[in-house]
Amino acid sequence: MGQGLWRVARNQQLQHQGYSGQGYLTREHGRRIASNNVSNTSHRKQTQGGIDIYHLLKTRKSKEQEGFINLEMLPPELSFTILSYLNATDLCLASCVWQDLANDELLWQGLCKSTWGHCSIYNKNPPLGFSFRKLYMQLDEGSLTFNANPDEGVSYFMSKGILDDSPKEIAKFIFCTRTLNWKKLRIYLDERRDVLDDLVTLHNFRNQFLPNALREFFRHIHAPEERGEYLETLITKFSHRFCACNPDLMRELGLSPDAVYVLCYSLILLSIDLTSPHVKNKMSKREFIRNTRRAAQNISEDFVGHLYDNIYLIGHVAA
């Protein structure tokens, strides 16, 4: 009896507030229509905005004409900016359509200097008939020749006047170029120690932590796969260069080139120990500190501990 009276009273309350079944459906329908109208209005605004931007960028002569945007109809600065994102192959293809734009000397000069950062010819008066597009082709050809035979590659660069016959110029070219095969480069530097000396002096290790400086060094001058005389030469040259770049730090820590040499070997051995899957029992931090301080007693325990942490967190110094 009580539940029946409660239902009657509840129904009367809902009818009074306009929440009958039909009223609810009517209001829900109204909300959906309003929501759709707002959505359609927003869509039209977005579409209208897109059309406005499209018209601003459109450079076709007529609506019936179709195809790519004609770069010749754009401001020259914008056209050159678009073409500057292309590599040499795509730029050659673009020259088939926009010959004057794609053959511009500034574009090819940028491609040359972004790939080969230093060449002796950059600092000379260009010869008659010189073009950076032709120079790019010669540099590419010379790099391929170097990757097959380093001596022939260097001779090719010299014969074209691209490089001077100077160890310092060759070292700068190698330092600023990333297209040379590192295995062939390692063979060439092993034979040309005069070029290696100048290449080492181009590195600036000032205010760098020792393991990070060693990584940067081996990114430019790859370490040999096996221990030998060449690896000892590299570490010796690196140690002297690192000390020359950080004289205040060396005095503060009491380090000499011989001590840095010992630390470099310790870092290489630790890198192999921690990263090699064949070594099951990894060297602990305490063991590394003890072994390193036996070889170089003047080094502080905290400094050697930081060296271990760097290798443990970042990885191999000669990877």
Automatic annotation (TrEMBL):
<feature type="domain" description="SEC7">
    <location>
        <begin position="133"/>
        <end position="314"/>
    </location>
</feature>
<dbReference type="InterPro" id="IPR000904">
    <property type="entry name" value="Sec7_dom"/>
</dbReference>
<dbReference type="GO" id="GO:0005085">
    <property type="term" value="F:guanyl-nucleotide exchange factor activity"/>
</dbReference>
<dbReference type="InterPro" id="IPR023394">
    <property type="entry name" value="Sec7_C_sf"/>
</dbReference>
<comment type="function">
    <text>May promote guanine-nucleotide exchange on an ARF. Promotes the activation of ARF through replacement of GDP with GTP.</text>
</comment>
<dbReference type="Pfam" id="PF01369">
    <property type="entry name" value="Sec7"/>
</dbReference>
<dbReference type="InterPro" id="IPR035999">
    <property type="entry name" value="Sec7_dom_sf"/>
</dbReference>
<keyword id="KW-0344">Guanine-nucleotide releasing factor</keyword>
<dbReference type="InterPro" id="IPR036047">
    <property type="entry name" value="F-box-like_dom_sf"/>
</dbReference>
<dbReference type="Pfam" id="PF12937">
    <property type="entry name" value="F-box-like"/>
</dbReference>
<protein>
    <recommendedName>
        <fullName>F-box only protein 8</fullName>
    </recommendedName>
</protein>
<dbReference type="InterPro" id="IPR048003">
    <property type="entry name" value="FBXO8_F-box"/>
</dbReference>
<feature type="domain" description="F-box">
    <location>
        <begin position="68"/>
        <end position="111"/>
    </location>
</feature>
<dbReference type="InterPro" id="IPR001810">
    <property type="entry name" value="F-box_dom"/>
</dbReference>
<dbReference type="GO" id="GO:0032012">
    <property type="term" value="P:regulation of ARF protein signal transduction"/>
</dbReference>
